[in-house]
Amino acid sequence: xxxxxxxxxxxxxxxxxVVAPKPPAxxxxxxxxxxxxxxxxxxxxxxxxxxxxxxxxxxxxxSPTQKTTPLPGDHRAWMTQHPSALDMFxxxxxxxxxxxxxxxxxxxxxxxxxxxxPDAAYMSDAMRATVRNLASYFPTAIVTGRCIDKxxxxxxxxxxxxxxxxxxxxxxxxxxxxxxxxxxxPAKEFLPxxxxxxxxxxxxxxxxxxxxxxxxxxxxxxHFRCVDDKKWExxxxxxxxxxxxxxKLRLTHGRKVLEVRPAIAWDKGKALNFLLQSLGYANSNTVxxxxxxxxxxxxxxxxxxxxxxxxxxxxxxKVPRDTHATYSLQEPSEVMHFxxxxxxxxxxxxxxxxxxxxx
Length: 359
Hints:
Layout: E1 41-42, H1 48-62, H2 72-81, H3 89-96, E2 100-105, H4 125-137, E3 140-143, H5 148-155, E4 161-164, E5 169-171, E6 182-184, H6 191-204, E7 212-215, E8 220-223, H7 232-243, E9 249-254, E10 257-262, H8 268-278, E11 287-293, H9 299-308, E12 312-316, E13 327-329, H10 332-358
Parallel strand pairs: 2-3, 2-11, 3-4, 11-12, 12-13
Antiparallel strand pairs: 1-9, 4-5, 5-6, 7-8, 8-10, 9-10
Helix pairs in contact: 1-7, 4-10, 6-7, 8-9
Function: Removes the phosphate from trehalose 6-phosphate to produce free trehalose. Trehalose accumulation in plant may improve abiotic stress tolerance.
Cofactor: a divalent metal cation
InterPro entries: HAD-like_sf (IPR036412), HAD-SF_hydro_IIB (IPR006379), HAD_sf (IPR023214), OTSB-like (IPR044651), Trehalose_PPase (IPR003337)
């Protein structure tokens, strides 16, 4: 069985092999875009300054630091559509009862606070303990734009599944027999190109105060959280100009970050489906996937769950926003509270089942 197509779990042997899809060709001059319209792709070949300018304005308008306080009525309406997962906890557990819950968690802004320096996005000991307890009851995966090595250095839990670089680098829990357990890398052929572009962008953006270029193995992140917003347009043009020479890469943006990624049909939603398939739940009606995230890239996963009718997404946001998620939480502290309640609910359910069997 190929290591590339098989998932190894530390407590349940090998799962069925999954064949990696061949990366599709790049369509036209567009650096690919998400199908849900919530994650913006930037046209880099022939888009012109107008395209860049329009994107910058949309990013500025959606920036939490630029947003005005939402009107009470607007927030109430949004919360009616996406109620708090804490307030709806009883309903959530009722729907999930008898099903196999599988947890998918974003990292930045979900398990750790958003910080100016991405290298300092540390996970609290309390959150780590909560996630460790969660994984003892439910298969749990971290799905992030970070490279696996970086996010693992923050999380430090070997019993989890990790999907780094927006799902382009997937790895199962470590086992004694095979400590690597590399599962799936659909964009492996792009590694030399990504490394090359990373080095170029470090040089090209060095004159912009506050910018930070991060190599996330299968993608390059250009963080501009600490950049004066008057310089965003110039920075975006500079990054886009580099990609004119790399038509097989696409440029997108998330929360105060530009991201360069392989132009293949792969995202967090596809990573979610891959992991469910590897776990044997692809066509199961007894599985309940739960995905919690705060970023635009998480919308791909929210949409998959919404369209499948299985499980649900929980968006982490203090302000109303377009989302495919069913429920909401405001910040990482609420995420931890929700996960803790889920663990306690499972413990009580498990304890009750054991008592019934002993009778």
